[in-house]
Design a protein that fits this description.
The chain has 326 residues and is an alpha/beta fold. The chain folds into 2 domains: 111 residues, Nucleotidyltransferase, domain 5 (2-Layer Sandwich); 170 residues, ATPase, nucleotide binding domain (Nucleotidyltransferase, domain 5, 2-Layer Sandwich), CATH 3.30.420.40. Strands 3-2-1-4-8 form a 5-stranded mixed beta sheet. It has a 5-stranded mixed beta sheet with strand order 11-10-9-12-13, with helices on both faces. Helix 6 packs across helix 7 and helix 7 packs across helix 8. It is globular and about 60 Å long.
Length: 326
Amino acid sequence: MRWALGVDLGGTAIKAALVSQEGDREEVMEVPTQAWMGRDHVLEKRLLPLIERALQRARSRGMKVEAVGVAVASPLDPWKGVVYHPPNLPGWGVFPLLPYLEERLYLPVKIDNDANLFALGEWKWGAGQGHAPLLCLTLGTGIGGGIVYHRGIIWHGAHGAGGEFGHVTIDMEGPPCNCGNRGCLEAMASATALERWVKESQERGRTTKIPPGAKAIDIARAAREGDEVALEAFQWVGKNLGVGIAALANAFDPRVIVLGGGLSKAGMLLLEPAVSEFERRALSLQRERVKVRLAHLGHLGGVIGAALLALGEGLENHDKVREEEG
């Protein structure tokens, strides 16, 4: 049995698991990132000890780990292994994470963007199993994206930054986005957008049971209890999401679009208006054939995708294509 260690380095938590080429998952573990304490603390006190603990458990069970894959919530160069100013890892700047890990782990290491690896996991063993091209959107504080095409190859674009679906403009006069643009999908269909819509409704005097400062999980709970403001908020966010995925379907003509991330846990509250708007706006061929599905792998999607990368899926194949194309 071939095993790899998959790691998901996020701004809130670092998750890891031993994953086999058959999809078995063992020794799942998680620690808080403590990102506010800076890069050296995260690397030396959180990430490396977690990796070593997982590898030690593998050794104690006679499991030979071939390689380590790391999903990072950051813009990065997947070939050189350099991360560029991770938005949720303050103080990291431009950092050569891949060389850093290779020098300390004495194992092959691969890294990639967390949304790319989430997409890879969903393509292999999740909601898009075996279907390519596949587009994946991770809906949380922001919106990440990943593209998996022929035989599980991750599409990175020319500079490693392909799949930034959250920054597709869907309304030129829409709300400001953290990227500096206006009306991005992220600004209108993320958990942050949902929370902002509710807050603005409360400031206008709307009657609602949603508490001040509510998070997306609180708004979803209120919506399931029939709160009118919460239901309208999900309709607004869902329709915006539908506009975005219709544009992506028309542009890429995928077989499947997978919706993951924390906001996707709202289920049909989000999916119903999104699919309805998608069907209104997509071209007839895409409307009839492109499937829109909720992710299956949950919070371990990035971990599983990272392990797949380490086992030879995604990036190695892409490297070959890149060499052939020059």
